[in-house]
Amino acid sequence: MILQTMALPLSCFLFFLALQSHNSVAQTHSNITLGSFLKANNDNTSWISPSGDFAFGFQQIEDKGFLLAVWFDKIPEKTIVWSANQGNLVQKGSIIQLTKDGQFLLNDPKGQKKWSATFVGSLYYAAMLDTGNFVLASQDSVNLWETFDNPTDTILPTQTLSLGAHLVARFSETNYSNGRFLFAMQGDGNLVLYTTSFLGDQAAYWSTETEGIGFQVVFNQSGYIYLKAKNTTILNYLSDAAPPSNFYQRAILKHDGVFRHYVYPKPSGSGASRWPAAWSTVSLIPENICLSTPSSGGRGICGLNSYCSLGSDQSPTCQCPPGYTIIDPHDERSGCRPIFISQSCEGPSQDADLFDLMEMPNTRWPGDGHDYAHYYKVTEDWCRGICLRDCLCTVAVFEDGNCWMKKFPFSNGRLDDSLGGKTLIKILKDNSTLQGVNSKNNDDSTLIITGAVLLGGSAFINIVLLLATSLTYFYFKNRRSKVLHQQRVTLGMNLQSFSYKELEHATCGFKEEIDHGAFATVYKGELPNERGNFVAVKNLEKFVKEGEKEFETEVLAIGRTNHKNLVQLLGFCNEGHHRLLVYKLMSNRSLANFLFGNPWLDWCTRVQIAFGVSRGLCYLHEECSTQIIHCNIKPQNILLDDLFNAKISDFGLAKLLSADQTRTTTGIRGTKGYVAPEWFKNMPITAKVDVYSFGILLLELLFCRKSLEAESNDENMVILAEWAYDCYIDRRLDLLLQNDEAAMHDMKRLERFVMVAIWCIQEDPSLRPPMRKVTQMLEGAVEVPAPPDPSSYISSI
After folding, report:
1. Spatial distance between the Cα atoms of 769 and 777, rounded to a whole number of angstroms
2. Considering only CA atoms, which of 188, 182, 232 is closest in space to residue 210?
3. What letter does residue 606 receive in the DSSP assignment?
4. What are the structural domain ranges in the chain?
5. Mind listing the pLDDT tens digit for each residue in 149-161?
6. Average pLDDT of 358-369?
7. Sheet containing 569-575, strands listed edge to edge, beginning at the edge strand earlier in sequence
8. Which of 101, 162, 287, 727 reaches 20 to 30 Å from 229, CA-CA?
9. Domain 592-794 sits in which CATH superfamily?
10. Rounded CA gap, 75 and 712, in Å?
11. What is the pTM of this model?
């Protein structure tokens, strides 16, 4: 970005305004003395600034919990400008207090610490100032700690951001935990907006390009927001449209990645009637974030297979292309998934006639790792034809004789009139064909009845009509057969559809039970004509009957997976009320059989199992055509082959279980001790729930101890994660090892693995690394930073 050169008189004027820092603003306030406290309840008790403009206290966020925050108190919106505890909500009855021994603590109703202000010096009082700054001060009125020095996503007039300071966007409009965007006043002087990709890495999408000269972001009382150098020269304006003095102001890094300067007319302000009684935008950076974010690596605004467009207020929205639907209806940025079976890469190329290409003008999915072909000087018809015949092509972009082809998934989509050209999305011509296969299509009986009715006419006409009816019947029969064949071989898989009698015979009448859970029983079997090749037949006993239409599609999606650390799905049965899955049998059964018994698995084997499980999860989360979230990672679902290689089982089938049954088991999917805190907080469920479960499993692998274990001769439960963190802090991980000499001699690796596990079990999902980074950290390819204390959640289980 080119630096702006300012005229001398205006620079001098603004420099004078900039000198009015928040430290010099004079105001009176009522001191909040030691021993004072606020309790989270429904009456919104708070500490108010002298003018009444701002309040500090607990705000109830819908019906999800309470947020410790600072907000504008005189306007109906009660707009929050700062929050504690990384934006995490607390329960009703939680307390924030200035203790008599000089601490500022947030405790839950059980008295467990959730958050505290860190400062040096003796705390004497607190105060909510009219600037919106909440301060903790010493007896001689020196600020020991203040919200202005610890911003979240918002800055206010008189507030500054010095080198190293940053704002972090919230996750969503009503979820105040950390999101994907960062506004950073870097130590090198450059002011940068970053986006975090869905894989966890960062990339800049806006910058002042002021390395070596930038010094401080200033939001002065007049409403100008600018970057200045150390010699006070103004280098760059973020907002130079200052409103009159009778307006409230704030600047926020929104959850959508846009930095906006807002104004709101004060209730009694004269001349404010020309503005609506709501927050209005006076400036924003960048002007079009859909086009500004990086074009590769999943760093765009929206999730995979979706695209970004600007609304009337310049806010980005995420939408799905034709033939696709949103993955999580509660999170428009979760990405989209196809509602049809993808084109087969096996069998005859005539399968192409089942598909068509839908036009999307002025839409692009820019070049990234999923571009695999580029043709020059071709016609649109040629581009369409080559994409339809190519089973890998899911999107073709055509412009000015150029044809780019992309495979699934595609990322960083954007729609804008300035783009030109068009995108061609491959979809199934008649999606009802697949639906007909799944619902057994009553077309057969309809056609037969129609033919029978027609037999009441003349013999000749009846014969002609009967022939036409028969031909029509066999046409649809053949078409459905073709689509069903396409389902069987989709993307190179070879799943076999078994009848119930076949599986009953293979298991000798379901005689040898090898495992039993809350939702299914697993039996040992042997397929005919494959003597010696034993299988595990899983009978889903708690299957939701209303889900028949999605059963085969879901199984086929899982059947596409192909990874050495996943149990191989061989086939299934979808007959009447019977739902069974057929897997390759693992000779050593589950990890649970070896992890907590005696003898234990040796240290080297446990390390290799950790690698295997992390790689398998990374594949499910990031490398499948459709992301699969396991939802129940635990030792019982990690199977071991004859060489003790780890194989994840039961992946992706959580949604097939009975909703009534899950409600009777605490209303969550998963197993006690392994479930992520999101399940308890009504937050969006993402792949990070698997990361949490893996962290717990990793600790169990390292120490051969259960995540929840009763103490000897005591009903109290020992929480392994809490114990492991304490031992890590005290440098005494050896206390957790049970005479394991091999692990004792590999303490450097052990400590690294424990640090990775602690990162995985952080309460805030945004703090947990994605599985790709987890794998890299375990393997030593990426440095593992010191993890924070995860006990804020562990203590409340």
Report:
1. 10
2. 188
3. H
4. 1-8+158-285, 22-151, 307-425, 434-492, 496-584, 592-794
5. 999 999 999 999 9
6. 78
7. 496-497, 569-575, 578-584, 534-540, 520-526, 513-516
8. 287
9. Transferase(Phosphotransferase) domain 1 (1.10.510.10)
10. 57
11. 0.54
